[in-house]
What does this fold into?
Amino acid sequence: MTTPEFTSNRENFCYRHPDRQSFVLCQRCMRTICPECQTQAPVGVICPECMNAERKNRTPAQKKAARRWGGRGTGTMTMARSGRPVVTYALLAVTSFIGLVQLIPGMNQPITQALGFFAPYLYPNLFALPFEPWRLLTVLFVHGGFIHLALNMLALWMLGQSLEPMLGRVRFLAMYLISGLGGSVMVALLAPGSWTVGASGAIFGLLASLLIIGRHIGANVTGILVILGINFAFGLFVGGISWQAHLGGAIVGALVALIYTRTKRRDQRTWQIVLLAALVVLLLVIVAFIPPLLLLA
It folds into this structure.
């Protein structure tokens, strides 16, 4: 039951439908809007007039990206598919927590030995070691020091802000993990006797995927290509950096991005899942059969 004071206040009703009571405000103009007039935004909702104004202010590149990725509305509407980059924040939180625990005196070596990647742990029959296949992915959450951790987390935060809203949470997480898996597989192939830690494989996968997706939507990707090349070359010439993980992550991340760009329509979702699953199976088959031959050689 409402009071006369309430009904006489037009701010309690949708400005486009004066007969509809509402308590929700547009985050742009702060006017009251009913559910029919609400368009989900990264934070709150916006009204149709503000949405139209935002459409008009989009750059040609943004409009092209929306068309290529199947979006009908604004960049805000594309963002609303996944909202805030929750997966990015979760990965940052978990990885940073483990990395900071590693900095506690006496904790670095046990955590590294428990979660770091060492190919012989995948082949217990050859080396009388326990079978620990989870190391293919847990390696993403341990690092070799504060600088190593900070640089990877900064890169994850920057790349996640762009990629997760564009791809959605599930696709972004799949890309991150599959790229990390690709990095571990490449280490097993090219450096099977070395210990590896860090999220660099997954980070390079995100960077390579941004290159592929940017090229697909017609953006200028020269800067991304230069950054990717510099970082990869840096790993080649500086000791103690696993360039193998960088290479594997970049290759697999590019493949995942290629799958996404070729199966972005809703009716192609099944094919997308099938192709991603096939890529994972291929990586597991490679790591299961080829490295043992190298380790025994």
Q: What stands out?
A: The domain at 86-296 is CATH 1.20.1540.10 (Rhomboid-like fold). Confidence is low (pLDDT under 50) at residues 71-82.
